[in-house]
Amino acid sequence: MGWRVPGRWAPRGAVGAAGGNSVDASHRLDGNLTVKAELELNHFALLAAPGITGDSSLTLASEPNADWAKAGRSVLLWRTTGVAAQGGERSRSLATDAAGRYLRVRISSRQGQVLKLAEALPFDLPLPSADAGGDAALVQLVEIPEYGTVTVPTGSSLTATAWNGRFGGIVSFMADELQLDGSITMDGRGGRGGGAAKAGAMNCAELNGVADDGYAGKGEGLEPSHFASIWLTPAGGPLNYLKGGGGGSCSESGGGGGGHFGGGGAGAHEYWAEGDGRGLGGAALSYEPLRQLLWGAGGGGAHGNALLGSAGGAGGGVVLLWTRNLTGSGVISANGAAAEDPAFLAENEAGSGGGGSGGAVVVQAVGELSCVRATAKGGQGGTSATATGPAKNGSGGGGGGGVVKLTAKSLHCTTDVSGGPPGAISPDALPDWLPKAGAPGKSL
Description:
Blueprint: E1 22-24, E2 32-34, E3 38-41, E4 44-45, E5 57-59, E6 74-79, E7 91-93, E8 102-111, E9 114-117, E10 139-144, E11 146-152, E12 157-160, E13 170-180, E14 183-185, E15 284-286, E16 318-327, E17 331-333, E18 360-365, E19 368-375, E20 403-407, E21 410-416, E22 442-443
Parallel strand pairs: 2-11, 3-12, 7-15, 11-13, 12-14, 13-16, 14-17, 16-18, 17-19, 18-20, 19-21, 20-22
Antiparallel strand pairs: 1-2, 4-10, 5-9, 6-8, 6-10, 8-9
């Protein structure tokens, strides 16, 4: 017999495989797993038709390939993005929103591209809306491997595909026993950072605009139409839309840090004090991680002359695990990435992007959960430099902290959801010009 997390179900016995890693297929659907070096887990699928509350069947899209989705396999149904937002919000509870909702369910049968599920859908699974710019799927299906014993030795790591605008951004599996001495990491694999301004034009009084016209890109958050990869108004500019950091738009101004459970920090002021133009930090969100999960948001890109500004850092992804016991001296992380420092060519030529926000770590254990630490930290903002040190303008804001939720009968694991620091700045900078640190997230 398998084990059960309350309200869930047990892994089933069957034969499985896991690439070039050591697998004993004597029990469980995917056997035992010993990780060598770095291993990417999970496969992904998209929908060809919406899923409706109360239905128990889903139709898969032809891409990406979903041959893995077979009868008996567990999948995660995850509403990854899709929230209407008003620009400039500083905080919001998502308790009544559908974004982030997820369900682990077993496939009972498959005929062609149609899956029959073991239970009815408790919420809708929509297709991307027409205004999503065509580059973001609101719903993805994630393969959930089921192992007996998973061993992650020192120096090895488990991860998964980074969010690419359609799928990814989460590593997830079930295991009877998890021996973790290496790492399980989704650092920098969440929402993408906004690009640096594509032109040197200054837009010091405007909050939204086209990135080609001197507005740096906003970081990726919950509303796909406001992410700068699609280069549409208002995909660039200082205004944040929920958790995505705003981009700089005026004379080497810095990008804002992405937000998650902690708000992102604003970027540094522009050089000439003709306007503000710095990216605002992403909003602080709240939700219940056993019901909803979100990756961290990208930081906003920076403004710079001669295309010298730097892009924002990517947010941390999601780690979602179920196990009977987790033991060892390893680390679980979903940290936001730091923004890169722009290349220095001349004084006051380039602003710096904001840091990505921390993602989410959720581990549900029945008995023991012991590790060195579980982290969802915000990334650091980039630093703009002069010939003698940090500039007095242009550095990026820090990313906000994410969320860590650990449940077990016996829990021994340090958590860190600190906000990212801002980029460095000259001591003679005016107080109002300073970039801001990201706020800490939550350990629940």
